[in-house]
Amino acid sequence: MAFEFVSLSASEQPDLIEFLVKSYHADPSVTSFRPDVMQWKYFAEHPQWTGPRALAIKQDGQIVAYGGVWPIPLATQNIKIRGIHLNDWAASRSAVGAGVFLLRKAAAFCDVHLAVGGSEDTRNLLPKLGYKIYGELRQYARVVRPWLQFRTTPRKTWKTPLKFLQHSARALKGIPPASKGWQATKVSSFTPAIEVVTNQTTSFVSPRRTAAALNHLLACPAARFSGFQVSDAQGLRGYFLLTQIGRQARIVDIRINAG
């Protein structure tokens, strides 16, 4: 039977979770595939997207490929760009071509499709489909409690003591103080006042954020999120969002207008 391109309804969430767990050989209890997280990611209302976000290919009534739309609105001083990233892109090996078919159908929903990371197979496939590399996403980390990390590391190797010494040396230097007059204030939610910062456009492409979009991130049930506004004597200058996963604090989003 031919492929059928569809948008899934919330009532089909159990079938979607079953498909993704099988595709990724994942533990059914993994946070990413919890029903409340899946509801937030793909079926709850999104403030910057009005179309469907749970896109699938079906064959004989069964899901054989899936991609969840994560909207990434972009802008320059002159234009607005409708960008997306497909989360949880997966396809059944028994349905050859279903994943590519889904990608091409999803392209109709946007001006730009951004692909970040992915498996080795995915990174090898995308250039063959016309995708081009425009940058790298690099990850940086700083250990602020080296002794705690050393004691709680479950699998130690001969490198573990060396890393402990390295992290300890950095920790002794301390964290540089904030510039005079600058401060970060924790907020329970963002108000439209933050859009004074997010609406500022530049000559290069940058994400477009609204207060509602930032609050949507704060409502993510997968982890504990916190929002902060950054200001100085001149007023509001930016924001950042943190999430805590285990003993890690991660920067989810940040924008500072320092000029």
Break the fold down into its secondary structure elements and pairings.
Blueprint: E1 4-7, H1 13-23, H2 35-43, E2 54-59, E3 62-75, E4 80-91, H3 98-106, E5 112-113, H4 120-125, H5 146-152, H6 159-173, E6 183-187, H7 195-198, E7 206-207, H8 211-218, E8 224-232, E9 235-245, E10 248-256
Parallel strand pairs: 4-5
Antiparallel strand pairs: 1-2, 2-3, 3-4, 3-7, 6-8, 8-9, 9-10
Helix pairs in contact: 5-6
What does this structure look like?
The chain is 27% helix and 29% strand. The protein is built from eight helices and ten strands. Strands 1, 2, 3, 4, 5 and 7 form a six-stranded mixed beta sheet that branches. Strands 6-8-9-10 form a four-stranded antiparallel beta sheet. Helix 5 (146-152) runs antiparallel to helix 6. It is globular. The mean pLDDT is 89.
Q: Structural class per helix/strand content?
A: alpha+beta
The radius of gyration over CA amounts to 21 Å
Count all strands and give the number.
10
Q: Biggest sheet: strands, sense, closure?
A: 6 strands, mixed
Order of helices and strands: EHHEEEHEHHHEHEHEEE
Terminal CA distance: 58 Å
The overall pLDDT average reads 89
Runs in which pLDDT lies below 50 for 5 or more consecutive residues are none
Count of individual helical segments: 8
Gross morphology is globular
Q: Residue share in helices?
A: 25-40%
Work out the strand percent. 25-35%
